[in-house]
Amino acid sequence: MRRTPPVVVHLQPQPAVQALVSWIAALASAGLVAWLLSLQTVAWPAVMVASLAVPLVAWWASRAAAVLPRRLRWDGEAWWLDEPGRDDGPPVQLAVLVDLDAWLLLRASPGPRWLPLSRRQQQAQWTALRATLFCAPRALR
Prior knowledge:
Blueprint lengths: L6 E5 L3 H24 L5 H21 L5 E5 L4 E4 L8 E9 L3 E7 L3 E6 L7 H10 L6
Antiparallel strand pairs: 1-2, 2-3, 3-4, 4-5, 5-6
Helix pairs in contact: 1-2
């Protein structure tokens, strides 16, 4: 059986993903505030405090969606997720959650860690990454 060749991908921050997650969280929390406004028995101070929470929720969501710089590598047998400047990261199992051809959302287990990847940021490795994700045998670790 032939081994798939090694692949190395450097994960980078994705401001567009952070902005989208922040926007969705802000809309959800604004919807909650609108629902509170529709109730007749709610006191106005509680609604005002809830409406002040909308920007806080958006900020928190943006921070939670931030991608830390890491290195994802396939050595021919297993996937590894390394911290910056280190080569001893843990082995991970990858699952492709969203595949939009030019953008991928991966889940690395154990963790889980969410790894958004875009073709624009991974031009040189994109084809090899996709081929390895979908064709490499699943590691048993």
